[in-house]
Design goal:
This protein is mostly helical. It is about 65% helix and about 0% strand. It is built from four helices and no strands. The protein is globular, with a radius of gyration of 13 Å.
Amino acid sequence: MSETDGARLFREAWIAGVRRHFPGEPKPGYVTPWDDTPQWEREAAGSVYEQVRQFVEISGGNTARLSREQKGRFVATCWTAQMFKHFEDPKPGYVADWQDLPAWQQETDADIFETIEKSLG
């Protein structure tokens, strides 16, 4: 899968997760389609996709044994690093620790990991 396709998969998994887990109506920016997604966010999505892909690969496919929380934490940590890369002073919500993320975001991050994981199998 190309990096662009991986980034798109990440974004589609994010949107699906937000629609599934967000309480109420999500902010429009949470569900912006790929073609309207800012370039920095496309790059961040591609980088996190690639980190998850490599993690699954070097684990010999054994990431299926991780808990949903472990999978979600991995995505959240990779995303936080991207926020520091793309923003000098990112919004606190962009770089919050796992325990400070809302439940809907934790679930969405776990969904993203599992979507990428399944795409590799």
